[in-house]
């Protein structure tokens, strides 16, 4: 096939930015030649290069042609779906055989970013000797086979590599996702996938579907709150609780179907990942001793089996130990602290004292949460997780345990121990409305404040230098520098394993748990959650498009560990609402199994049965996705069978060879 057909795709703008020390961009300085070498090497590998002088740093903007990206994809052996239904390693010569993206491009943003990284860090010293680079009167040694960017990073010359916003596409997304007054939850998710990548697109698809579905329990909550059902009023809360539980179960089953549809539509290979054994054969385990044992055992099948089993169970034991340490820390440190705050809040009478107590509590709990997150990250490094996604999921489970205790233990205290439903509703209003509004304001204002402070410092430093040299007024005109001064989209617990979506998912999960677990105590919480969900679709899009740098794309085809956290919260809501109904109907605290209380217990068990049985009633994978997957598997099997048959010598040829002998 003619590879030139791929050139029909429009040439992209600058997509990658390099931040370097401003002084090395001065070409007239003879004491510096590392910049000249860097620019020469970047152009040699196929980059289109543009340099920009900023106030505090220098910037290099990069782009590459489709053909050069295709060559990098071929070097990476990037597997892409073809029109015959088989995922094959990409080859530029056969470009027309590969399926294009929904926006017509050959490569997705995740794939293009991988190709850019390969091109950048593939710049190595391929000569037969070390190369000396000049910098400020001293020499830097670029060693044989060493990546140039790694050398410059270690010397502090190269400060950062980050993706650049595409102004045309960014404004288009702002218009469709933020400024569109007609469609609140019907924006084109393909545009978000093409611009931000898979993981962020999956988040917005989930948030958009959640905003649509939560309208039903919100309307039901308004009816429960406003309508008087007379003699049937005692059945209103059990019916509402049952309806919201069924709603939650159905929502997540249909979300799984939607998730499968999206990854099939975007041609994402969602096959089951290799287990620990395959990872072990790939020599990706971290223990040097285990590697040596594996090499010795390859000739002995029994020995190999023993090494596999020891590696597998050692990983399970390490994860169990880490989880036990986190749980022990929560029970011994955080639980007494949370109970002490809840008890003091109950016994104190002065509102001023309660406010001061809450302020001190918020300050201390942030310290505990960050400390727990750091400990969790350190523990995860010793686990034998499959890949970075498994590590991120393990971190999510551990950190969510800290936030779960922080968010719900005080509410449980007032609801179950004191049965003070007035204080319980006040706490729910406080957590859902006041804290949520303040958190949203801080979430969307802090990035702008950080950007303004960095911009002010940069302009002030430039003014001092201009004033000392008699220069003119300073103007901030570089778009790439403005973009670099924006904060990165990182998680509050650190950016080693998670990006800023961790905080967005966490906020949504805590809100979901609050409205579900205390649905009987405060039905109107669903109304606030519905309003907040519709608002989040636009504010989160605005935040990503205007307040942060363009995030580094991450390939995550599902919402990961959060789906299991939501399932856990549904089970918890069945138990807590059943207990709340018992407390409401058993005002005298006799705890007698009367018909009403027995009915609540039966209802709890029925709902738990329905929760775990609905997965059989509503299949997770749509029939058309399953049919396409089976057809693709058959195509692969047929191709492999034909290839194997061609590799066998024919019977006639073998007969003739024997006859000659």
UniProtKB/TrEMBL annotation:
<feature type="transmembrane region" description="Helical">
    <location>
        <begin position="508"/>
        <end position="531"/>
    </location>
</feature>
<dbReference type="InterPro" id="IPR049452">
    <property type="entry name" value="Anoctamin_TM"/>
</dbReference>
<feature type="transmembrane region" description="Helical">
    <location>
        <begin position="552"/>
        <end position="574"/>
    </location>
</feature>
<dbReference type="InterPro" id="IPR007632">
    <property type="entry name" value="Anoctamin"/>
</dbReference>
<keyword id="KW-1133">Transmembrane helix</keyword>
<feature type="transmembrane region" description="Helical">
    <location>
        <begin position="394"/>
        <end position="416"/>
    </location>
</feature>
<feature type="transmembrane region" description="Helical">
    <location>
        <begin position="234"/>
        <end position="255"/>
    </location>
</feature>
<keyword id="KW-0472">Membrane</keyword>
<feature type="transmembrane region" description="Helical">
    <location>
        <begin position="355"/>
        <end position="373"/>
    </location>
</feature>
<dbReference type="GO" id="GO:0016020">
    <property type="term" value="C:membrane"/>
</dbReference>
<dbReference type="GO" id="GO:0005254">
    <property type="term" value="F:chloride channel activity"/>
</dbReference>
<protein>
    <recommendedName>
        <fullName>Anoctamin transmembrane domain-containing protein</fullName>
    </recommendedName>
</protein>
<feature type="transmembrane region" description="Helical">
    <location>
        <begin position="324"/>
        <end position="343"/>
    </location>
</feature>
<dbReference type="Pfam" id="PF04547">
    <property type="entry name" value="Anoctamin"/>
</dbReference>
<feature type="domain" description="Anoctamin transmembrane">
    <location>
        <begin position="194"/>
        <end position="628"/>
    </location>
</feature>
<keyword id="KW-0812">Transmembrane</keyword>
